[in-house]
Protein backbone atom coordinates (compact mmCIF):
# COMPACT_ATOMS: atom_id res chain seq x y z
CA UNK A 1 0.00 0.00 0.00
CA UNK A 2 1.46 3.34 -0.99
CA UNK A 3 0.84 6.25 1.37
CA UNK A 4 0.47 9.80 0.10
CA UNK A 5 2.96 11.86 2.16
CA UNK A 6 0.79 14.97 1.72
CA UNK A 7 -1.82 13.35 3.96
CA UNK A 8 0.62 13.63 6.86
CA UNK A 9 1.88 17.11 6.13
CA UNK A 10 0.69 20.60 5.34
CA UNK A 11 1.58 20.21 1.64
CA UNK A 12 -2.12 20.37 0.92
CA UNK A 13 -5.21 21.30 2.88
CA UNK A 14 -7.57 20.80 -0.04
CA UNK A 15 -9.54 17.59 0.26
CA UNK A 16 -12.22 17.18 -2.40
CA UNK A 17 -15.38 15.62 -0.98
CA UNK A 18 -16.11 12.12 -2.30
CA UNK A 19 -19.07 12.57 -4.67
CA UNK A 20 -21.11 9.57 -3.47
CA UNK A 21 -20.71 10.68 0.14
CA UNK A 22 -21.83 14.20 -0.74
CA UNK A 23 -24.78 12.88 -2.76
CA UNK A 24 -26.21 11.09 0.29
CA UNK A 25 -26.04 14.27 2.38
CA UNK A 26 -27.35 16.41 -0.46
CA UNK A 27 -30.40 14.13 -0.73
CA UNK A 28 -31.10 14.93 2.92
CA UNK A 29 -30.26 18.67 2.98
CA UNK A 30 -30.64 19.87 -0.65
CA UNK A 31 -27.60 22.17 -0.51
CA UNK A 32 -27.67 25.58 -2.20
CA UNK A 33 -24.11 26.79 -1.59
CA UNK A 34 -20.64 25.25 -1.31
CA UNK A 35 -18.48 27.69 0.67
CA UNK A 36 -15.09 25.99 0.16
CA UNK A 37 -14.60 24.80 -3.40
CA UNK A 38 -12.43 24.90 -6.45
CA UNK A 39 -14.24 25.27 -9.77
CA UNK A 40 -13.32 21.69 -10.67
CA UNK A 41 -14.69 20.13 -7.47
CA UNK A 42 -17.60 22.40 -6.46
CA UNK A 43 -20.56 20.43 -5.14
CA UNK A 44 -23.16 23.12 -5.77
CA UNK A 45 -23.88 25.43 -8.69
CA UNK A 46 -23.23 28.35 -6.36
CA UNK A 47 -19.85 28.18 -4.62
CA UNK A 48 -17.02 30.25 -3.21
CA UNK A 49 -13.53 29.59 -4.51
CA UNK A 50 -10.29 30.69 -2.82
CA UNK A 51 -10.28 33.72 -5.15
CA UNK A 52 -13.55 34.88 -3.58
CA UNK A 53 -12.48 33.78 -0.04
CA UNK A 54 -15.48 32.21 1.62
CA UNK A 55 -14.42 33.50 5.02
CA UNK A 56 -15.09 37.05 3.82
CA UNK A 57 -18.59 36.28 2.47
CA UNK A 58 -21.99 36.42 4.15
CA UNK A 59 -23.01 32.77 3.81
CA UNK A 60 -26.53 33.29 5.16
CA UNK A 61 -27.18 35.94 2.50
CA UNK A 62 -26.25 33.52 -0.29
CA UNK A 63 -27.84 30.31 0.97
CA UNK A 64 -29.93 28.69 3.69
CA UNK A 65 -28.61 25.14 3.24
CA UNK A 66 -24.83 25.26 3.11
CA UNK A 67 -22.11 22.67 2.46
CA UNK A 68 -18.67 23.26 4.00
CA UNK A 69 -15.68 20.98 3.54
CA UNK A 70 -13.08 23.50 4.74
CA UNK A 71 -9.33 23.44 4.23
CA UNK A 72 -7.98 21.13 6.94
CA UNK A 73 -4.98 23.33 7.73
CA UNK A 74 -4.22 25.91 10.39
CA UNK A 75 -7.29 28.01 9.66
CA UNK A 76 -9.91 25.27 10.05
CA UNK A 77 -11.11 26.84 13.31
CA UNK A 78 -12.08 30.04 11.45
CA UNK A 79 -14.26 28.02 9.05
CA UNK A 80 -15.95 26.09 11.84
CA UNK A 81 -16.57 29.26 13.84
CA UNK A 82 -18.12 30.91 10.75
CA UNK A 83 -20.27 27.82 10.13
CA UNK A 84 -21.58 27.94 13.70
CA UNK A 85 -22.16 31.72 13.61
CA UNK A 86 -23.93 31.45 10.25
CA UNK A 87 -26.31 28.90 11.77
CA UNK A 88 -27.26 31.49 14.37
CA UNK A 89 -28.56 33.61 11.46
CA UNK A 90 -31.01 30.87 10.47
CA UNK A 91 -28.99 28.83 7.98
CA UNK A 92 -28.23 25.13 8.20
CA UNK A 93 -24.51 24.50 7.72
CA UNK A 94 -23.22 20.97 7.22
CA UNK A 95 -19.46 20.50 7.61
CA UNK A 96 -17.21 17.58 6.73
CA UNK A 97 -14.36 17.66 9.22
CA UNK A 98 -11.46 15.62 10.50
CA UNK A 99 -12.31 14.29 13.97
CA UNK A 100 -10.17 16.24 16.42
CA UNK A 101 -11.87 16.17 19.82
CA UNK A 102 -8.59 17.13 21.47
CA UNK A 103 -8.81 20.66 20.05
CA UNK A 104 -10.34 23.74 21.61
CA UNK A 105 -12.45 24.46 18.51
CA UNK A 106 -14.02 21.00 18.61
CA UNK A 107 -15.43 21.68 22.09
CA UNK A 108 -16.16 25.35 21.48
CA UNK A 109 -18.10 24.81 18.24
CA UNK A 110 -18.53 21.22 17.03
CA UNK A 111 -20.11 20.04 20.26
CA UNK A 112 -22.81 22.70 19.76
CA UNK A 113 -23.93 20.89 16.63
CA UNK A 114 -25.02 17.39 15.69
CA UNK A 115 -21.99 15.16 15.22
CA UNK A 116 -22.18 12.20 12.84
CA UNK A 117 -19.06 10.05 12.91
CA UNK A 118 -18.16 8.52 9.55
CA UNK A 119 -17.67 4.76 9.65
CA UNK A 120 -14.30 3.88 8.14
CA UNK A 121 -12.05 6.34 6.38
CA UNK A 122 -13.01 8.52 3.42
CA UNK A 123 -11.04 8.60 0.19
CA UNK A 124 -10.79 12.26 -0.80
CA UNK A 125 -10.50 13.60 -4.32
CA UNK A 126 -8.05 11.74 -6.50
CA UNK A 127 -6.16 10.15 -3.60
CA UNK A 128 -5.25 6.50 -4.14
CA UNK A 129 -5.82 5.62 -0.50
CA UNK A 130 -8.23 6.53 2.24
CA UNK A 131 -7.37 9.37 4.60
CA UNK A 132 -5.27 8.47 7.65
CA UNK A 133 -7.71 10.32 9.91
CA UNK A 134 -11.34 9.75 10.90
CA UNK A 135 -14.01 12.14 9.66
CA UNK A 136 -17.27 13.49 11.01
CA UNK A 137 -20.17 15.46 9.64
CA UNK A 138 -21.08 18.31 11.97
CA UNK A 139 -24.45 19.97 11.44
CA UNK A 140 -25.24 23.43 12.75
CA UNK A 141 -28.67 25.00 12.59
CA UNK A 142 -32.28 24.01 12.14
CA UNK A 143 -32.92 20.33 12.55
CA UNK A 144 -29.54 19.58 14.11
CA UNK A 145 -29.87 17.18 17.00
CA UNK A 146 -27.40 18.91 19.29
CA UNK A 147 -25.56 16.57 21.58
CA UNK A 148 -26.34 13.56 19.37
CA UNK A 149 -23.42 11.37 18.38
CA UNK A 150 -24.42 9.29 15.38
CA UNK A 151 -22.45 6.84 13.23
CA UNK A 152 -23.01 7.03 9.47
Automatic annotation (TrEMBL):
It comes from Paenibacillus flagellatus. InterPro entries: Dam_MeTrfase, DNA_methylase_N6_adenine_CS. GO terms for biological process: DNA restriction-modification system; methylation. One of its GO terms (molecular function) is DNA binding. Coiled coil: none annotated. Pfam families: Dam. It comes from the Bacteria. This is Adenine methyltransferase. Keywords: Methyltransferase, Transferase.
Amino acid sequence: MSINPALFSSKTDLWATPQDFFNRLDAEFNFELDVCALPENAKCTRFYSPVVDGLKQDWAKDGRRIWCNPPYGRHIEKWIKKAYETSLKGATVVCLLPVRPDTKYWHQYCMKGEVRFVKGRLKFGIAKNAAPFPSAVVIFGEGARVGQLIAI
